# Entry
Amino acid sequence: MTTSALSLRGAGIRFGDRVLWSGLDLELQPGEFLAVLGPNGAGKSTLLKAVLGQQPLSDGELLIDGQAPGRGSDRVGYVPQQKSMDAATPLRARDLVALGMDGHRWGLRRRTAEQRRRIDDALAAVGATGYADAPLGLLSGGEQQRVRIAQALATDPSLLLCDEPLLSLDLRHQRAVADMIDRRRHEHGTAVVFVTHEINPVLDLVDRVLYIAAGGHRIGPPAEVLTSETLSELYRTPVDVLNVRGRVVVVGTPDEPGGCTHHELTPEARPAAGAG
Amino acid sequence: MDRLFDFSDYGALLGLVHNSLVAAALLGVVGGLVGVFVQVRDMQFAVHGISELSFAGAAAALLLGGSVALGSVLGSVLAAALIGGLGVRARDRNSVIGVLMPFGLGLGVLFLSLYEGRAANKFGLLTGQIVAVDTVRLGWLVGVSIVVLAGLAVVWRPLMFVSVDPEVAAARGLPAGVLSVVFTLLLGLAVSLAVQVVGALLVLSLLVTPAAAAFRVTASPVLAPLLSTLFAVVSAVGGILLALGGSIPISPFVTTISFAIYLVCRVVSARRRRTGWGSRVPDAQLTATPEPAR
# Structure
């Protein structure tokens, strides 16, 4: 039996009396794509913090590659939300990737030819070779996000954590970034934990969904978790899940006043994949 | 004074200011390098705040007959510790600085008005007085500079990581709070050097302007600190060399040179932006050609 890239056994986090989530059991296999969904404040980001070793569990255990999570492990890559860089940041795309590799080391050292080759490879793998030497602050949001993925993958981690990586990207770049992550997990067996508000851009890539809400959590294939019955139970209120042209629309979640859609319905159909 | 410049005895004067030139060059190196992080961490206001408390420390030392150098270092480090300890978040930090700065300046003015020595000493703390750096003070400056440069070398990479990419740096286990305090202390030491050379009011011209100018023209993490250092050294040393020929203190020369460099860099960057930066290949071109050149 292979070691799970990430395993959670009876894991739970509570702050005082407030239980964020509990009894979480998950064995994430190498190369598996898990989407983490749920309303704001359900504890999605706290789950990522726990995996990053920044937030100790209140109950249960958490293992990465069969080992306890250390702070700042090479085995975990992290892609944060897209946030535009200051235009005067004195770094080029390749320097951000380099920091992902050795930015945590003290002292000044010259990078070896081997390290520089790995940086080039990581940039090439996300199609960022063309702007490898451009200042970060001058890249578009989509380009910056590609570079961030290259940064997260530069250490060849066995687990890739993504925190809303598609937020504020246009459809074309959403697709390109999602495909890039998908390709990586197939080619390198990198397991992916993908926290998102919007399942549709990655719906066809996802193996399993972890849905966290006030009424607990469910793990399973999207078709099983994203149903009116399951989500009504998780939200403790009637919720309708509609399938419209291959997209999932959730209506009536309590955190969206007026019963607006939770997973936004985007009017235009997804364009054909450009980069992958 | 009928002439602004008189370079007739320049050779003899140069010998007299040998120490000052060394001090200025050193300050240029320290200021240029520290300035890189002042810029990426958005701490320009902290530089100003620390310099006012450094001034108060130096004024207190002058009044009590102690070492001005030691006084300014103590004032700086105290301010840096308060700013680093009380305000880790940018907003807290700015309000802490806004509160400390006038208090420091007020104290400094009080000490100076009580002091009954030479008036030039008083004025010098605010606007610069390098023309007489004696050997003892030079020893201080060299020692403090070495501490700052060594400290920067150790924390350079993690500090850059935490400053430009805080989320991922935290995910890699870097202690952002510790690095912030360490940098603020190094900044405090650098400011105390600058206060003794260009005076409390003009510290920004060596700790902010050169790096701001360098960032205009390069995004290379190697070239940016080198250019920033070069600009700061040229400003500081150039300021002294020009001031020697006249009766005006060095600070207007230093500030003017560094401002002029900044202007030139802005013009260069404006032109650069119009014509495109570096070897950037546009996105569209990338998808069109599967194998981009280089």
Observations:
- The first helix of chain B runs from residue 10 to 16.
- Chain B has one domain: 10-277.
